[in-house]
Specification:
This protein is mainly alpha-helical and about 110 residues long. The chain is built from 4 helices and no strands.
């Protein structure tokens, strides 16, 4: 889980690697710098492509099938999607690491 945390921190550009990982080695410096590079430019390029595509499109009239972005339904769907994607990313790693270690304290072999 420390390696996952270090790569998540590098990819999100907050620069905090775990101290227990001893990430100041040539191996981790190289891999974390690659993760940081893709975390920056791997996101910037598709976002700019999407922005260019949306800017080139014509504005459509509001119909019955349009989901308004200023209502509570949109906010709820957006928050739910962000939480669901976040859980799908981190729950498997947590279930295999710290959660299992904690359960092993309660139920030893």
């Amino acid at each position: 889980s420390e390696i996952l945390s270090a790569f998540t921190a590098a990819g999100n550009n907050n620069g905090s690697a775990c101290a227990g990982l001893s990430a100041n080695t040539p191996f981790y410096n190289t891999l974390l710098s690659i993760a940081m590079w893709f975390g920056r430019f791997g996101v910037i390029v598709p976002v700019l492509a999407i922005a260019g595509s949306l800017a080139a499109k014509k504005r459509m009239a509001v119909t019955a099938g349009t989901l308004p972005t200023h209502g509570p339904l949109f906010v709820g769907l957006l928050i739910g999607t962000v939480l669901l994607v976040g859980l799908l990313n981190y729950v498997p790693a947590l279930a295999l690491g710290p959660v299992v270690e904690h359960l092993m304290l309660w139920y030893p072999k």
